[in-house]
Amino acid sequence: ETGVTQSPTHLIKTRGQQVTLRCSSQSGHNTVSWYQQALGQGPQFIFQYYREEENGRGNFPPRFSGLQFPNYSSELNVNALELDDSALYLCASSATRGGTEAFFGQGTRLTVV
Amino acid sequence: DQQVKQNSPSLSVQEGRISILNCDYTNSMFDYFLWYKKYPAEGPTFLISISSIKDKNEDGRFTVFLNKSAKHLSLHIVPSQPGDSAVYFCAASEGGGGADGLTFGKGTHLIIQP
Predict the structure, then answer these.
(1) pLDDT category of residue A99 using cuts at 50, 70 and 90
(2) How confident is the model at residue A71 (pLDDT cuts 50, 70, 90)?
(3) pLDDT tops 80 at residue A101
(4) Of the candidates A84, A90, A74, which has an alpha carbon nearest to the alpha carbon of residue B38?
(5) For residues B73 and B66, what is the distance between their CA atoms, to the nearest angstrom?
(6) CA-CA distance, B34 to A79, in Å (whole number)?
(7) Is residue A72 pLDDT above 90, yes or no?
(8) pLDDT for position B105
(9) Minimal CA separation from B67 to chain A, in Å
């Protein structure tokens, strides 16, 4: 059984650019959630996908968008990057739609300059 | 408005003693609570959870207590070991954690002293 893997691990982008982060869910998990963790803060819920459809969304603007694929892997896209988007982005997968006992990947550290 | 609060940014405990990490919440709709542990450069790892219908859940050295009337939960680790040094996050969910995901506190950095 493989765990949750994210790529890339680190990324530097310029303000105004677009970025795509990727996540492979744990085997057998059909639900994926994305979180943003700023320095010194806890993870903040961005959105959740269940069987390729968005299942819920946190307080993030529309320039944060996502996709879930038939194999349950997922992408997080961020357009028009801002300096405040610099953070650790965490992907979590779970076996249930509720997504409570979620299993996290190691995260992607995004720096916007 | 922070709905899950961990008021101690750090806690230092001697090896072998009990570590008690605290968490308060404001949203009375939360019905499921979780603790995660995070080492540097790794993602959070699930530790233990508790449903609002219970007031205690135990798993080995880890016990979580829930006081619904006080909107307070705590994680007890006994005995504390050096490998327990990490950042601990309290998280809560509403209605099975579906559409709103998990709401996390800011974390408590636990340091186990030898």
Answers:
(1) low
(2) confident
(3) no
(4) A90
(5) 4
(6) 32
(7) no
(8) 97
(9) 20
A107: left (phi over 0), alpha (psi -120 to 50) or beta: left
Amino acid type, A56: G
Inspect the interface and report whether the beta carbons of A42 and B42 lie closer than 8 Å: no
Q: Does the beta-carbon distance from B103 to A45 stay under 8 Å?
A: yes
Q: Per-residue pLDDT for A77 more than 60?
A: yes
Task: Average the pLDDT over each of A10-24, A95-109, B31-45, B62-76 and give the range with the smallest value.
Answer: A95-109
**CA neighbours closer than 13 Å in the CB half-sphere of residue B10:** 6
The whole-angstrom separation of Cα A84 and Cα A23 is 22
Q: Which of B43, B89, B93 sits opposite A42 (nearest CB)?
A: B89
Is the pLDDT at A1 greater than 70? The verdict is no
| A89 burial type by CB count under 10 A (0-12 exposed, 13-18 middle, 19+ buried) | buried
By C-alpha distance, the chain B residue nearest A37 is B106
Extract the tokens encoding A59: 């307080």
For tokens 């680190």, the residue is A10
- Grouping H, G, I as helix, E, B as strand and the rest as coil, residue B43 is coil
